[in-house]
Amino acid sequence: MSAARPLSTLRTFAVIAALPLLLTACGYGAESTDDGKQAKVAADAKKLSVDEVKIGYFPNLTHATALVGVQEGLLQKELGGTTIKASTFNAGPSEIEALNSESIDIGWIGPSPAINGYTKADGTNLRIISGSASGGVKLVVDPEKIKSLKDVKGKKIATPQLGNTQDVALLNWISEQGWKVDAESGKGDVSVVRTDNKITPDAYKSGSIDGAWVPEPTASKLVSEGAKVLLDEADLWPGKKFVITNIIVRQDFLKKHPDVVEAVLRGSVKTNEWINANPDRAKASANKALEQLSGKALPADVIDPAWKSITFLDDPLAATLDTEAKHAVQAGLLEKPDLKGIYDLAPLNKVLKAEGKDEVDDAGLGVK
To answer: What is the dihedral of CA 232, 233, 239, 241, to 10 degrees?
Structure first.
């Protein structure tokens, strides 16, 4: 299967998708770390077709399905005697690299690195097998400098990184206003300033940026510093839903160990169900996991609004991933990719059917 590769002007499209900063103390880079969670496995628990499944995710709120699923033992319960080895990542490329090197089997990741990883490997390395989260992205601004959407023109707006999911969304929104910006340099009617989420709050406080199009909880962190939410990205999407986190799997692992993949998906579905039924307990569980991973929990004035803006769901919202890819193409950041086959939702739909839930659609981008 052939697929288009990213343009040379963008070394890696969407290097970080959905890369919310959890705390200013949280660093970023290409390293992964063992999260230290020791799965509690019953002595008589039956193993599946493999002794251990290696999963990866980011230590942030948009990956709360994984955080809570591991923290509460909901994933392990479905795996029986097959243990979980969990690793956390600070950036999408490092997780894709880990998947390609077989350091992880299954991962929670944003749409842009999934697209980039799939196209760079000519569609041979991964499949998206489920959704996990939607929403949690906002345009927040200095209310003294920007009082309405039209005031964004001429201002300096931060995004996490060139070509990442939020960067593409801002560039597309700017284009829809009829304004012009050079995608690579960020110069034009709006100055798009690529700034790591970990330093965006300091950049805002210093006045070097006037606002930011960022994921949670960075957006709520900025609000706690005096910023105002000018636009919730969810309002730009049909039904106010768009993919922010997917679950991916190595194609080879899916082929060899479908029972393990189904068990992880059952755990994910049941975790999302538990999160939605117990939002306060789930929020506390996610924050506890973050504290264990980073050494510091998120304060209430950050986690409370951030949590409310994220929807946890099983549907991968495949049509929105396709739209995000088209936005990147329109911005000149990506050649038109061939995404046919990026999804394999058969295992998820099997799980959903068994749970009495509605099946989900791959928007024509599923395996043949």
So the answer is: -110
* Res. 335 pLDDT band, cuts 50 70 90: confident
C-alpha to C-alpha distance for 267 and 274, rounded to whole angstroms: 10
Residue 261, both tokens: 């993949």
The model carries a pTM of 0.83
pLDDT bracket for residue 39 (50, 70, 90): low
Cα angle value 276/104/125 (rounded, 5°): 100
Measured CA to CA, the distance from residue 178 to residue 173 in angstroms comes to: 9
CB contact set of 221 (below 8 Å; sequence gap of 6+): 21, 24, 201, 302
Closest CA to 51 of 79, 11, 23, 71: 79
Distance between CA atoms of residues 99 and 96, nearest Å: 5
Looking at residue 368, what is its pLDDT?
A: 75
Q: Which residue has the tokens 């969407």?
A: 14
Residues 298/122, Cβ–Cβ less than 8 Å: no
- Sheet of 310-312, strand order: 32-34, 83-89, 52-57, 106-109, 243-250, 126-135, 310-312
User: What burial class does residue 308 get, using C-beta atoms within 10 Å of its C-beta: 0-12 exposed, 13-18 middle, 19+ buried?
Assistant: middle
Q: Cβ-count burial of 54 within 10 angstroms (0-12 exposed, 13-18 middle, 19+ buried)?
A: buried
Beta bridge partners of 223: none
| CB neighbours of residue 207 within 10 Å | 10
Q: What Å distances lie between residue 21 and 74, 131, 135, 165, 195, CA to CA?
A: 25, 21, 15, 14, 12
Contact between residue 235 and residue 173 where contact means Cβ atoms under 8 Å apart: no
pLDDT at 10 > cutoff 60: no
Give the tokens for residue 29. Answer: 């880079």
Please state, in angstroms and rounded to a whole number, the distance separating the CA atoms of residues 332 and 23.
32
CA 132 centroid distance within chain = 8
CA 178 to chain centre: 29
